[in-house]
Write a structure and sequence with these properties.
Helix content is 38%, strand content 19%. The mean pLDDT is 92. The longest helix is centred in the last third of the chain and has 13 residues, at 64-76. The protein has a three-stranded antiparallel beta sheet with strand order 1-2-3. It is an alpha+beta fold. Strand 2 (45-50) and strand 3 form a beta hairpin.
């Protein structure tokens, strides 16, 4: 959905521990991490983490595209 909305994204599906993936994401400098875990997805939720502020939001998965667009729009301001 994100790619279809014109949002560049990378899926880290390497067989590494989550901590390794989070660290690599921070080193690369991705502004947002979207964490999709088994427990959250079972509830129809995803986690979004702002790299700069470390703020974490829990959103319903159907709201993710609009939330990411809003976040990226705020970055451009």
């Amino acid at each position: 959905e994100l790619a279809s909305a014109g949002i560049e994204c990378i899926l880290d599906d390497r067989p590494e521990r989550a901590g390794v993936k989070f660290k690599d994401s921070d080193l690369i400098g991705f502004p947002i991490q979207i964490i999709i875990g088994e427990k959250r997805i079972a509830n129809g939720e995803v986690e979004i983490k702002d790299r700069k502020t470390k703020e974490v939001k829990i959103l319903m998965s159907d709201k993710i595209v609009s939330a990411i667009k809003e976040f990226l729009s705020a970055l451009g301001s």
